Structure formats: structure tokens, C-alpha cells
Amino acid sequence: MFKFYLYKFAQFIVMRLPLPFAYRFGEFLSDLQYLFSFRDRQAVRNNLRTILNTDENLSTMTREVFRNFGRYLVEFFCMAKKFDMNFVKEKVKICNIDILKRVLKRGKGAIILTAHIGNWEFGASILCMLGYPLMVIALPHKERPVNDLFNHQRQSMGVAIIPIHTAIRRCLEALKSNKLVAVAADRDFTQSGEVLDFLGRKAMIPKGAALFTIKTGAPIVPCFLVRNQDNSFSLLFEEAIDPPFESEEYIEDSSLITMMQQYTKVIEEKIRQFPTQWLMFRPFWVK
């Protein structure tokens, strides 16, 4: 319950502060985490060394990852109150949304593929505000109150949550109804992914997006909400990835791996472009 009360305390504070001061408060808490959480600090530094292929100290960049996480939490806890369409019009640059519009005209839905980069939660909310409601596959938190808190924040912005244990059936139904399903494809939560090359090393990559696109014919549309230096954002849509074929029955392993390799390359590119915005606080690669 400690984590729940910490989040509630942080939410109570940031909801009552002007946004610039809320960011400073979030950065202060993140600096404390950086100082006192040796395990997280070591994991982030090692991840950065792999991304950048360097043995340098990287303390400044490591601290910036923690601060970006603090900013992410501030926005997540405030978004229902402080972020509306006016904020989107003034502070969010939307790039290549025509890609999504063209895909939806096919009538097969779309898989919005993202990663733990920038603020993926706020990105989902922005899509809803733009008139593209979507369903998000989310791993339940271990603590029920924390899980309820996070889901309440998402649902208050119009984002529908799909627990992992019901994801397959509900996602297939949504895609066949020309709806959007969002997945973060840079972390495997189920230990049923595939080991692929990722940023020069082997990593367990989730295969859900590849399975959904092959089974339904719904294209994958990579989408990332990245942070600019002034805490404005860019919502970036990448070219759609089409499935090799559509099948309700047997899926060739080679087709699955090919699809996964295509979308992992997109994620790799974004992580290399925004290394301090990849909010990964655990050892990532397979030893």
C-alpha cells in the first residue's frame, strides 16, 4: 500500500500546483528516487550504455531519465484536469495523422503500436480527444488500489482498458469492428514473447501486435508521443506495417518473426533518437 499512498500524495500536490511548479515537484521526487534507488539507477545506466554503445559515465543522462519519469507522472495525474483540446492545439504537434486516417478507411481497424517512450499514456488520451477512441492492453498492477487509481485516470480520458487475461478475444472483436487497439511492444509481460535482436543485443519482445495483425489483417501503425525541451509534445505517426496475409488458423513462425522484426526496428529508431525518454527501469536484455 506504500506505493498507492505515495501516488495519491503526489497526485494531491500536483493537482493543486500550476503546471510549471508541478513539473518541478515531479523532478524533485525523481531526484530522490535517483539518489536512493541504486537498483533502478544501475538498470537505467546500463540500458543507456547499450543504446549509445558507450562505456562513459552517463550520470547526467541517467538522471534525466528519472526526471522524465517524474514529468510523465505529473502529466498522468493531471491530464483529466489540466490537459484539454486547447492544450493539444497549443502544445502538441501532430505529425502524419493521415497515415491513420488512410488505414481506417480499409475497415479492418488498426493496431496502434507504441513503446514506453515519452508519455504513451497521454498519447492515448490525445487520440481519444482527436476522435479516435481506442482500447489499451494494460498489465494490472500488483496492488489493487494502484491498479484502480491508474485505470481511473485512463478511463477519465476515454481510454478503454483491456486486462491481459481477456486481451486476445476483445482485441480481435475490436479490430474486426474497425476500432483501434493500442499495445506497447517494447516489454514482454507474459514471458511468452520471442527473443530477437534489439539494439544490438538479445531481448524478449512481445508478439501480440504481430499475432493480431496476421489474424485480422489490421495494419500496425507505430505512434509515439515524444517530449520537446519546453515540455510541449510531438505526436508522431510512422508508416503503417501491413501483414503478409490474413489467417484465422495456422500462423507460420517465419511470418510472425518477420512482422516483429519490422516493428522492433521502428522502436529501436525512436529509442536511439530519444534515449532519455525511454522509461525502462529494469534490466532489459537477455543474459
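(ticket continues) Second input and output from the same batch:
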Amino acid sequence: MPSDVRLHPVSLLFDLAKHLRNFALPALLLFFGMSRSSGRGPMDNGLWLLVPLVPALLASVTRYLSFHLRYDTDELVIRSGLFFRNERHVPFSRIQNLDAVQNVFHRLFGVVEIRVETGGGKDEEARLSLLPIGAFDEMRRRVFADAASEAAQLETSDKGTLLLHLPPREVLLCGFLENKGLILIGAAYGALWETGVLDRFWTRFFGSAEGFGRGFFRDVLAAVFTGTPLPMARIGLAAAALTGVLVLGRVASMAWAFLRLYDFRLTRVDEDIRTQYGWFTRVTATIPIRRLQTITVHQGLLDRWLKRASVRVQTAGSTGVEASTAGDRAWVAPIIRVQALPGLLNQIVPGFDLEAVPWQPLHARAFRRAIKPGLLFSAIATLISAPLIGWGAVAVLILTVLWAIVGARQYISHLRWAEQGDVLLMRSGWISQYLTLARANKIQVVTLHESPFDRRNAMARIRVDTAGGNPFSHSVDIPYLDRKVAGALANRLAEQAASTGFRW
């Protein structure tokens, strides 16, 4: 195969479409605004509105003519620029992920956008747009194949073991459980509220916008504090509207998931896992198993009732990149049946047996430590509410203390840790449950933390950081450990990490 790759000629057409889309709205506003202010017709303003497109098109032509992609023995070389030349050398061993993105028009012209990610920064190392469709397979084989076995990789690259395939029913169920449609509905509702469209709607169908729209909550609160009868008809109508919004949110989330995750396939090819998904925009992502940093299993309340879970992975190059691909790529299993979970984890982490994990408890006094913040909050809430509601503060005290007891008890009972071979595990959560696996050869830092309260109770905390760590994701952070147990665990992890050669 050739080692030198150029952009596909159709990339110029896509660049033109992108520039026209970016300039369309500002140009239209300026176009018609000047027509009204000057009293001249639109054609009298001239075609000078297209002048800003010229530099953008020249930049696209320059990028097309100057772009060169070359494969050296162990690195990717990308050259671009005509007057100011830029040459980047990306070693194959540093590339964490390769993503291929194809929308409907990309598939029509047989081209693909490739995104190359390394662990060296928050942004993508390179976005190659647009290359011939065969360039992605060639890049994947060259980047993720050992030189000694490259010939075998070339022959078997299209074969693999199908680990997970989501039929439409499971994809729709995934959207139902995610329930992301409420975000769009909430944003739309806020925009309609601020623009006054909702007021006109209430006035047309209910006679008064003040009586049901903006004044509804004020009337309900006034009735509660003054003792006047509640507007039950409007409350019932509001409850029905809220129910409709919740149902519509679920439906919108299911539709969005169907378009985004349609025909989701997770395949293992040799030592890589590959995901393919999407209706209009088809995404293909490749992650070498040896470069996975952590694996996290999540189960919400509805997930447990329906015996489903989701599996997310992190790599060193998975933070800070575009959410439209990075977020979805991290979900190697957006939804999976619980009974199939051990088999999937065994494929991702060879030798790992989820059903044989020796879970370890926390310190015997962990509950006493965990309940104290809740009791403090209960005391503060009672003192604040006493001047406002009098003896009703007693009810506040009872409810908050009960919640503190139940919450602390459930938190401690569901918080466990374990070691199995070279894998460290932590599970937590009683409403939304999380299970995170971190392998010793991926651990970057092991921290033994002791607060003054920890030292007083002979406890300690263990924190583990990996190259793909994300402060907003579930990580291995085990509190309320016995001090001796925590010290021994920290020493074992440090020795395992030090004795194991780190490989990207």
C-alpha cells in the first residue's frame, strides 16, 4: 500500500458547504437589514457580501494542495501549509484512539473524517478531513499493528468477535433510561417563556396568561399562606401538562438515541475493541485493549429494575475532546443485560471474573464517620426553620435525622473495594450504583490520605489516578479504610505499578 496519502478532492466541496453555512445567517441579516435601511432592493447591495468567503476558500484550497500524510516505520507524519509549513510527527505508540466519522454525504462520496488522539493534550492531535474511505483501514492497521505481525493483521483486519449488538428495541430502551430529552424540552420551554410565546398560548386557549402562566405559581403560594381555597382546576391542568412534558421528554430521548446509536456494534479484533454506531452520522472508533485506563459499570434505579447496565471506558486521550464522539465512544456498552456483563468484562480485561470478586468491607466505625455530616446538616436546618415555622421544626428535625441515618447506612453498606489479580475495584452508590476497575500497570499515582478525623479514628483514604483520569467521572477513591489495611494496600499497588512496565 502507498505510504503517502492526500486529501480527497471532494473535501473542497465540503469546505465550501461549511463556509456557506457559517456565513449564511450573518449574511442574510446584513443583506435584508441594509435593504430596509437604505430603501434599495437586495440586488442593489451588490454581491460584495460574498467577499468574506474568498479568504476562507483560498485557505481551503491551500490546505488541500499542501496536505500530505506519510507513514514512516513507527510514526505518522502530517505536513500542511504552503507559506508557513507545519510538520507533525506522531509516534504510533502514542496514539490512543482513532475515530472515523461519516455523515450521510460522506458515505455518498466515499470519504471519511479521521480523528487522531494521543495522551499528550486536551485536544485532538489531528483531524484529517476528508480522506478516502480506505485510508482509515490502512491507518488503523499501521497504527495498531506490531511490525512483526503486520502481514497477519492485514489478512484478518476485517474479522473479529462480535461482543455486543444492540437491536432497535435495546437502543430505544437505552434512550428511555438516559432521558436526555428533558434537556432539549427545558431549553425550548425557557426560550418560549422568555419570548412571550407561552403567554399568547395561555391567553388563546385559557383566556388569561396571567391566570395560568406566570401568575400560576404566585396564586398557588398565596393560597397556601393565606388559607384560601387552592385553584384545583389549574393545579390538575398543570399536573397533566407536567406529565405530558415528562412523557414527551422520554420519547424525544428515545428518538435521539435511535438516531445516535442505531445498529451499535462492539467487536473485538485481536487486541482491539471497535465500536460502530449511528444512523445519519456513522462513527467507527478503535481502542487497543492494552491502552484502556479504567472501566466503569453504571446502574441507575430503573436500570436495576430492568436488569440492565452500561459500561464506560477511559483512555489517556479521552478527555477534553469533542463531546459528540468522545462521550459516545467511551460507552463501549451504552446498555447491556446484567447476565451478559461478566462475559463482556472478561473480554476487555482478560482473566477477570466479576462473579468471583472478593469484596472487602470498610472500617468497623465507618458508619459513625459517615453519619456526622448528615447530623450537622439536620441541626442547621432545624435552627433555621424554627423561627419560621415554630414547632414545625420538630418535624424537620425528625425527617432530616432519619434521612441522615438511612443515607449513611446505605452509603456504607454499598461502598466496597477488592483486589483480583492486578485489578483494583471499587463500587459505590445505592440509588445510582457504580463499579470501577483499574489495572495496576495503568496506575500513575497512589495516594494515602489522612485527615485529622481519620487519624483520630485510625482510618485512611486511598486514591488511585490513571492517565485517563477525569475529575467528573467515577474513580477509585476508597474512604474509611483501616489505617493498616490502607497502608498495606498502598504499598502493594505502588510495588505492582513499579514492577510492571508501563505501556501506552
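Agent notes: The longest helix spans residues 232-261. The longest strand covers residues 95-102. Closing as not reproducible unless the customer responds.
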